[in-house]
Design a protein that fits this description.
Butyryl-CoA Dehydrogenase, subunit A, domain 2, three-stranded mixed β-sheet, globular, four-stranded antiparallel β-sheet, alpha+beta, 8 helices, 47% helix, 283 residues
Length: 283
């Protein structure tokens, strides 16, 4: 049912890629995941492909946004000046595995507001240093770390068009939520079959997956955010009911219970999107 090592999972993930149907790609990969680390990796990488369709296939990638002071636009100190990238990013998921880095950086200011761009930098580029950070207590099978950029040369073709924060960072947060949910639903569906759990758990997973597919084209609309919020609540309830089964291996249950905390990391941003959606609807 599932790949036993991350290497086996990675081979499956790339051999069965669906770059033009990234939600289904995440779901299919989740079916092969042995743990939630693989579920997260599948959702994270397929979300990046949805964000940037031209991203090279067959290579893990990482979004590099957060800095020591946070990830608000005014806290971004990493700077691109005269074609050279300098700064440091932290809490990067997939850090040491990533071959492609997508770096949010400041290119100047306009009327007192930082001008931000997203640049595409190979992890192997001269001046790039990646350091693994201590374990977070979750997603133990994939690394996270910090990355330093010491005068990394960036050509014009590596600078993505549009606003780095609005067009990429904010857009990615929605895509990441949806694709990780899709991978988690695929995982639950496969585990239900593997351990002969109650069929209604798989039925709930499939209902939520079809809901995600319906929401996906409308994800920027206010009403879509309402649906996504309810979908997230239902996914959490499904995972709790799934974990309640004493048929599942105890070590798997403990690890998944810890890893599920990753679903709440972006809760503040999700709540802000939901409130903004309600304000738009009520207006």
């Amino acid at each position: 049912m599932s790949a036993n090592t991350f290497k086996q999972f990675s081979d499956f993930f790339w051999a069965n890629s669906l770059p033009h149907n990234t939600l289904q790609w995440a779901f299919n990969a989740g079916q092969q995941a042995a743990d939630f680390s693989c579920v997260f990796a599948a959702g994270y990488r397929s979300a990046l492909q949805a964000l940037i369709p031209a991203l090279p296939m067959g290579a893990w990638a990482a979004m590099c946004v957060s800095e020591a002071q946070g990830n608000h636009p005014r806290n971004i100190a990493t700077q691109l000046h005269d074609g050279l990238l300098r700064g440091e990013k932290t809490y990067i998921s997939m850090a040491e595995m990533a071959q492609e880095l997508l770096v949010l950086c400041k290119t100047g200011e306009l009327e007192g507001r930082p001008q931000l761009k997203l640049v595409h930098v190979p992890a192997s580029a001269p001046g790039v240093t990646i350091e693994r950070l201590p374990p977070l207590g979750l997603l133990q099978h994939i690394p996270h770390g910090r990355c330093r950029f010491d005068g990394v040369a960036v050509g014009a073709g590596q600078i993505l068009p549009g606003d780095g924060y609005t067009d990429y960072n904010k857009a990615f947060r929605i895509l990441e939520d949806m694709h990780i949910q899709a991978a988690a639903l695929g995982h639950v569906q496969a585990m239900v079959l593997a351990y002969q759990l109650p069929e209604y758990l798989a039925e709930r997973a499939m209902l939520l997956m079809f809901a995600l597919k319906g929401i996906f084209p409308e994800r920027e609309q206010a009403y879509a955010h309402l649906a996504l919020a309810e979908g997230e609540r239902q996914l959490h309830a499904l995972l709790q009911d799934f974990l309640a089964s004493d048929v599942l291996p105890e070590d798997y249950r403990r690890e998944l219970q810890a890893d599920m905390k990753v679903l709440g990391i972006a809760r503040k941003a999700t709540a802000a999107r939901l409130e903004k959606a309600w304000q738009s609807i009520r207006a």
